[in-house]
Every structure is written in structure tokens, then in C-alpha cells.
Design a protein that fits this description.
This protein has 302 residues and is of the alpha+beta class. Among the domains are: 31 residues, no CATH class; 152 residues, no CATH class. It is built from five helices and eleven strands, in the order ββααααββββββββαβ. A hairpin with a 5-residue loop joins β6 and β7. The chain is elongated and about 90 Å long. It starts with a strand and ends with a strand.
């Protein structure tokens, strides 16, 4: 288990993102608050008792016994190496007669280890050796076999629910940590996602998934009689996304948009990471990679 330093949620070790706020594990653990220090006065020093002198003879006796035991073990080991191996009887090889002559045994026609003659049959010809079959090389694994996503249709309802839960946590964390008290998130809704699949199988980034949300914001300043609403599109990009056997998605670290939406409201400036329109989202995330990637989409994206 690990505790998110941002929201305090307990998470299992298998989660790389906080289920409460969506923060990555490494960033969430770095934000954990340092332990509080208790500045209580130090207790008065206690008197140190006089050292107790213990007899030495028990330790000397134990040392002598250990040396004697080590000597016995060493003698056993060295005696085992000096012992000569017992002689073994050499196997008796029979003499096989030719097919057109009677079978012979030893020099006097008898087995020296038996009381009577032993007749041996001629050896049967061995069958021709069959060459071992050449192993057939297995075909290389395709993207579908390795679990890499290649089309937007491979993400089912479970995978989409997983993506939306992560995005909701990231947006909630941004609102809590970067927004002011006059800014209010009225609605945050899923718009769709792009899936870019590399045309080159040896590309380092095999796919990219861009998840797009729309946020509706209100800025309310009662003292200045200000009540302004605006909307913008927030997105996250994941790379080398894989799909598990149960339909869940294996997601790594994500990248937030580098562009900002600037809102000038009655002598105040407000900034939000994202884009004004879906066309801007497409130009920032998809258009630079169209030549090397195949683009599929889901939801209401252009």
C-alpha cells in the first residue's frame, strides 16, 4: 500500500496513479507531508549504573569447545578425501560370432564367469538413422498479440470508464491545487479520444492515445459584480497503451497540454492549460504525426 501525499487516499501497490486524485505515484509520494516534530523538553538524564563485572571462564570454555568441534569436523573432511575408491569389476563384453560361423565365447569356448558354454545370437542390423526434424520458426508476434492498441474500437466500456476516472481525478487535482476561490468548475464532460498507431513496426512509440474533455468554468467576484463563464478543452496524451485480457488498459505516464487558454475578465487574467476549440486540439496533438501514424477516433471529435 502507498498513501497519496496530495489527497491522502490509500492505494494498492499495483496502481501507478492515485484512485482519488489521479496523481502519478512518484509525484504523489514526493508530496507527502513531512512528519510532525514533537518539541517536548528532553527528560532529565538518568543516573548511569555501575558496570557489572562478569566472569570470563564461561566464554573461555565455550571457545575451547568450539575449537575442539572444528578440529573433529576438519579431521572427518580430510579423512574422506584420503580414502581410495573401491575397485569395481570390469564388465564382460560378449564376443559376437559372424553369421556363417558358430558362436564363440571366451578363448576356450566358455564364459569364464559361468559353468557352461554361452551361445550368442548375431546382432540385428540397426535401422537407418532418421534425421531430426528441423524446427519450424514461429511467426513474429503482431501488435494485437502483444496487447498494443491498434484501433479505437478496441477500447470497450470498461477501458473507457478507466480513462474517464483517471481524467476526473487529474482535473479535480488541478482545481484543488491551482485554481483560486473565485473560479468554479460547473461541468466537466467526456468528448472523445484519438488513437494514433505507428505505421513503422520498429517505431519507439507504437501508439498514442489523446483523451479530450470539455470544462465549463465560471469566475464569480461578488465585490466587483463579476460573473463570467467560459469553456475550454483539456486533454491528456498516453503512449504505448496496451489492453489487458480483461479489457482494462495498461497506461503509463501522461502528458498535459502545453498550450494555455487566456481569459481577461474585468482587470483580472485567468489561465487554463488546454485549447479553445477542438480544431486547436487536433492541430496540437494529431496533425504533426499524421504522416507516420494512422489516426482513428471515438466520440464527437473532428
Amino acid at each position: 500500500m502507498w498513501i497519496c501525499g496530495n489527497c491522502g487516499t490509500n492505494n494498492g501497490n499495483e496502481y501507478r496513479f492515485c484512485v482519488g486524485c489521479g496523481q502519478p505515484r512518484a509525484a504523489a509520494e514526493r508530496r507527502q507531508a513531512p512528519p510532525r516534530r514533537d518539541y517536548r523538553p528532553a527528560p532529565a538524564p538518568r543516573p548511569v549504573p555501575a558496570p557489572i563485572r562478569r566472569p570470563i571462564w564461561p566464554w573461555a570454555l565455550a571457545g575451547v569447545l568450539l575449537l575442539a568441534l572444528a578440529g573433529v569436523l576438519l579431521a572427518l573432511v580430510l579423512g574422506g578425501f584420503d580414502r581410495e575408491p573401491e575397485p569395481t569389476a570390469a564388465p564382460i563384453e560378449p564376443v559376437i560370432a559372424a553369421p556363417d560361423q558358430p558362436a564363440a565365447t571366451a578363448e576356450n569356448g566358455q564364459n569364464p564367469n559361468s559353468s557352461g558354454p554361452v551361445t550368442l545370437l548375431p546382432a540385428e542390423p540397426s535401422p537407418a538413422a532418421t534425421p531430426a526434424p528441423t524446427p519450424t520458426p514461429e511467426p513474429a508476434s503482431s501488435a494485437a498479440e502483444t496487447g498494443l492498441l491498434t484501433d479505437a474500437s478496441q477500447i470497450d466500456s470498461r477501458g473507457l470508464q478507466q480513462l474517464c476516472a483517471l481524467m476526473d481525478g487529474v482535473i479535480a487535482n488541478n482545481v484543488r491545487t491551482t485554481w483560486g476561490s473565485v473560479e468554479h468548475l460547473n461541468r466537466s464532460e467526456y468528448v472523445g479520444f484519438y488513437l494514433l498507431t505507428a505505421k513503422d513496426e520498429n517505431a519507439r512509440t507504437r501508439n498514442m492515445l489523446i483523451l479530450v474533455y470539455r470544462n465549463d468554468v465560471s469566475v464569480i467576484i461578488p465585490a466587483e459584480n463579476v460573473n463570467k463563464s467560459l469553456s475550454y478543452y483539456y486533454s491528456l496524451r498516453f503512449e504505448n497503451v496496451q489492453r489487458g485480457a480483461d479489457g482494462s488498459l495498461l497506461l503509463g505516464d501522461y502528458q498535459e497540454p502545453g498550450d494555455r487558454v487566456n481569459a481577461d475578465i474585468y482587470r483580472h487574467n485567468f489561465y487554463y492549460n488546454g485549447h479553445r476549440t477542438l480544431d486547436e486540439v487536433y492541430k496540437a496533438w494529431v496533425k504533426p504525426y499524421e504522416s507516420g501514424y494512422t489516426v482513428t477516433r471515438a466520440g464527437s471529435l473532428p
